[in-house]
Here is the input.
Amino acid sequence: MQNQTWMKEFKDQATFRLVVLNLITLGVYNAFYIKRQSKRLNLYLDKNQKIPDLLISMIILFSYLSIAIMIGRHFLEISSPVENLLKIADQLRWAFSLLWAFEAKNRINTIFQIDRDDDEWFEGAWSFIFGAVYFNYKVNQVCEIHDPQRGEPCVEPQSSGV
Here is the structure.
């Protein structure tokens, strides 16, 4: 990492808490976590680099749609077309969330000028497998590395000219 600053405002919560809330809300909490972190990331990005609001809206929409179809499936007699809608909504939610994970990973590595060889590097493979949960874990890990008690502050990044 070229600069010795870090992102205390990106540190949101314990990763275990994020996982539990995602399970309880059937993934809807994840969509709002993504929205919150995207707003934070966009503060440090030029207009053409920002994570699009449309992407965030699609993640939220398909998260709610998946739950609505899932609940409807359990309370109503439904046919295979509704099953197909559920599958499509889940696949779209997954695809948009995956796209967000890669966009967030790339942008945070850029904002903080993190080199691939650094311990702070946000990895693509882990982003693919765990998405927003990995993003949260990695932020917490990096803030721990740069803990003020160890002599390196976990503070705000440098702005990229917004």
